[in-house]
Structures are given as structure tokens and as C-alpha cells.
Amino acid sequence: MPGGARGEAAVKGSEGRRHGGLARAWDELRGRSARRVIGLVQAQIAVARTGAALALGAAVGETDRSVARARMAEVEHEGDAARADLVGALRRVLVTPIDREDLFRLSRSVDDVLDQLRDYEREADLFGPDDLTFAAEPLRALVEGLDELERAVQNMIDDPGSVTAAVLATRKARTRMGQLRQSSLSELFAGPLEMDTLRRRELLSRLDAVGQRLGEAADTLADAMLKRSH
């Protein structure tokens, strides 16, 4: 091979290796960015789950209501910090696993879950009925729904096909919360109208608002994954 041809081949080989190295570095950077965002979303959901478990403990009598209310305020602040970490990261990272707008919506819905839980726990402490066990099953459904939502987020990169099933399970948990509210109200209104009846109704409505926010989070993630597949 003439010297000029050998030189040209060497240059092309060098350029190819350089471009290949840049492509690998870019892929690695994209992967790290996406996984970092996923970790931050999971962290926010985990804080919301802590709040749901705390409310459940108070409903079944494992935790004193005033203690649960004070601790819930702390958990809500932890949720705000987790959301702030995510929002800050979204301003810096180059690549996200789903659309940024959808990530903001998902984060806001999870934050709303925790805000509604804070209000529920405060109201339960201020004017709640003596017996809160009626709230236990809706709160168990909420814990399960948040577990499924976290699982869906975790699998966005490595197993996107499983996200649909986890989102569906989250939606079922939200539906279960609504059904439990309806059955509880039916039992309440079948008896005498007393002050406890009104108190329970208010708390059931608050839990239904929690469920609505959970459903919004599931819907946001489902829409985001659909857009990503196109």
C-alpha cells in the first residue's frame, strides 16, 4: 500500500476510534443521567410510602395520633426536600428516562399524595372519631399502590414492558380505595346520623383525595411510557 494510502487509512482508523469512544461515553452519560433521575423519583415515592405506613399505624392503634401527626409533618418536609432534589436534577441532566414535563407531573402528584396524607393525619388528630380502624384498609391499599408505583419507576429502563403491569396494579389500588370509601359511606348512612358519622365522612373524603392523587401519578407514568414507545 502506498504511503499516502496508509496514512489516510490510519487517519480514518483514528477518527473511527475517536467517534466510537465518544459514542460510548455519550451512551454511558445518558445511562447515568437517566438512572440518577429514576433514583430520585423512587426516593420521593419512598417518602410518600413512609407517610402512608405512618397513617396506617395510627389507624390500627400502633401509633398515638398526636405522635403520628407530628411525625407526618416531618415526613412531609422530607418529601418536599426529595421533590426539590429531583427538580434541581432535572435542570442539570442532559437526558431523562421520560419526558421532563411528565416527570414534573409525576413528582407533583406524588407530592400531592403526601400533602393530602398530612391533612388527613392532622384532621384525624383534631376531630377524628375514637375508632379509626375504618381507615386501615384504604391506607393498606395506598401502601400497596405506592409500592407498585415505585416498582414501575424502577423498571423504566431495564424492563419497560413490566411498567404497564405495575401501573395497572397502582390504578387497581386507587380503585380499591374508592370502593372502600363507598362501602364505608353506605354503612355510615345506614345508621343514625351522629357527630362521628360526619367525622368519618370527612376523613373518608380526605382519603379519597389521596387516592385520586395516586391515580394521577399512575396515569402520568402510563402516558409518559406510551409517548416514549412512539
UniProtKB/TrEMBL annotation:
InterPro entries: PhoU-like_sf (IPR038078), Put_Phosphate_transp_reg (IPR018445), UPF0111_domain (IPR052912). It holds the Pfam family PhoU_div. Belongs to the UPF0111 family. This is DUF47 family protein. It comes from Nonomuraea phyllanthi.
